[in-house]
């Protein structure tokens, strides 16, 4: 499984499609979860040149610069990051360097699509087929509806037990990777 | 269940006991997870007066200031925060306003105690007894060994499936709350 965090196309508070700004801790936290649970790579997607440079600078600091010797564990996490300009580039990269064109599964905090969401158990079973899967997280107020509609699968929203589910994308990604790939036998 | 995030006594990279600085996104992310999964309150503990004022300022912005009307969902999360100077004050607050003196369970990314860690299943069963439980997360490089040794219970570390487990405290807290309180029947 491959993981992507995208900053476009996502929606703002008013539902308008925007390009969001990169949040430093999204990169760190999701890279650490990707490394912990054993996904193959973590793609950070932004079409903006200056944002791309910012991500490159952060990743380089921790993988090649001072951070790499100061905290080698962080290096091992941030090494998982690939920076791409579009989701099409991500799919192409996996197709070339991975095991073929991946099926794309999107995550969403709300039930926004007409299709019913795939359960975590169903997705776990799907992962057993040995084919590449790309799991996509959106920043800001979430992935745009047209993007969700084009995906192969939609994963069910995380339900707490309170009716309130407004987790950060960092925490949602960590929970979903744990649900899909966490070694329950060890816990 | 009650949740606490403490900035003292924790250890730094070299294992020395320190007081860590407050991270803004720890407050937001853990408050959102606490609200989502239905813990009763989120205690933020720091003995430093200036750090306490910083947390008060952040919480006040989102619960009473501009943030409260800009993003009412964030208000509902940050309303869960109580600021205390010590873990003793947290225990006392729960004893007075809750249902008695809580049992204290600590979390740790490593197996550092001589006692075997409690499994997630065992903790879930314990939560059924209706008595108050306080789950404590440490910042920086984790809770100090003497603090861990004094706790009633230690929760098993989160295991991924890679041998690497260096999650942020934000993500670890979210995963643990999901494992203990997430409504699996809905997913």
What topology does this entry show?
The structure is a homodimer of 187-residue chains.
Chain A: E1 2-6, E2 10-11, E3 17-18, H1 24-37, E4 42-45, H2 49-63, H3 66-70, H4 72-78, E5 81-84, H5 87-97, E6 103-106, H6 120-127, E7 133-138, H7 145-150, E8 153-154, H8 169-181
Parallel strand pairs in A: 1-4, 1-7, 4-5, 6-7, 6-8
Antiparallel strand pairs in A: 2-3
Please outline what is shown here.
Chain A has 187 residues and is of the alpha/beta class. The first copy, chain A, has helices at residues 24-37, 49-63, 66-70, 72-78, 87-97, 120-127, 145-150, 169-181; strands at residues 2-6, 10-11, 17-18, 42-45, 81-84, 103-106, 133-138, 153-154.
Describe the structure.
The structure is a homodimer of 187-residue chains. Chain A has helices at 24-37, 49-63, 66-70, 72-78, 87-97, 120-127, 145-150, 169-181; strands at 2-6, 10-11, 17-18, 42-45, 81-84, 103-106, 133-138, 153-154. With 187 residues, chain A is of the alpha/beta class. Chain A has a single domain (2-186), classed as Alpha/beta knot (3-Layer(aba) Sandwich), CATH 3.40.1280. In chain A, the strands form 2 sheets. A 6-stranded parallel β-sheet of chain A has the order 5-4-1-7-6-8, with helices on both faces. The mean pLDDT of chain A is 93.
């Amino acid at each position: 499984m491959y993981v992507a965090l995208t900053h476009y196309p996502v929606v703002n508070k008013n539902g308008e499609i925007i390009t969001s700004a990169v949040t430093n801790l999204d990169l760190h936290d999701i890279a650490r979860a990707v490394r912990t649970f054993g996904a193959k790579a973590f793609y950070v997607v932004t079409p903006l040149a200056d944002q791309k440079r910012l991500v490159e600078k952060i990743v380089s600091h921790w993988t090649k610069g001072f951070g790499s010797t100061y905290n080698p564990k962080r290096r091992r996490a941030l090494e998982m990051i690939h920076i791409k300009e579009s989701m099409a580039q991500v799919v192409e990269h996996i197709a070339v360097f991975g095991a073929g064109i991946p099926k794309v599964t999107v995550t969403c905090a709300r039930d926004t699509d007409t299709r019913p969401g795939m359960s975590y158990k169903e997705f776990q079973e799907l992962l057993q087929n040995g084919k590449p899967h790309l799991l996509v997280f959106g920043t800001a107020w979430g992935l745009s509806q047209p993007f969700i509609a084009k995906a192969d699968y939609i994963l069910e929203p995380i339900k707490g037990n309170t009716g309130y589910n407004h987790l950060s994308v960092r925490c949602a990604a960590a929970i979903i990777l744990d649900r899909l790939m966490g070694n329950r036998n060890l816990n």
